[in-house]
Amino acid sequence: MFAPALLAAAPATAQAPAAARCVEDEKPPVACRMQVTTRKGVRDLRFDVGGRQIRFVGRAQGRWWSGTLDGKPAMGFERNRGHVVFSTTDLTRTFAWFYPASEHGTY
């Protein structure tokens, strides 16, 4: 689908790491850092969460996202600008990120 190795040769545009809030599998939100790199329209989102890294690689089409979450096929939905919820297509894992000011229900 969106194999990271296929993107390695393409020129990349990286944004500076940003503070965010991350939610794994419906647990409470925690502080995290997000880094976004774009290559050929594919976004590589890396989240540092408590000393671990979570990675989504894929594309956005409007409010919908498709790609992989830590290597497993996944889809996502942008609840509002700066708040995206992802789930693996086998529904075994969910992950959400948002900017602190964009938490759903607080704007």
General description of the model:
The protein has one helix spanning 4-7; strands at residues 13-14, 18-24, 30-39, 42-49, 52-61, 64-69, 72-80, 83-88, 94-98. The chain has a single domain (13-102), classed as Beta Barrel (Lipocalin). The longest helix has 4 residues, at 4-7. A hairpin with a 5-residue loop joins strand 8 (83-88) and strand 9. The protein is built from 1 helix and 9 strands; from the N terminus they run H-E-E-E-E-E-E-E-E-E. With 107 residues, the protein is mostly beta strands. The mean pLDDT is 88. It is 4% helix and 59% strand. The chain has an 8-stranded antiparallel β-barrel.
Secondary structure: elements and pairs:
Blueprint: H1 4-7, E1 13-14, E2 18-24, E3 30-39, E4 42-49, E5 52-61, E6 64-69, E7 72-80, E8 83-88, E9 94-98
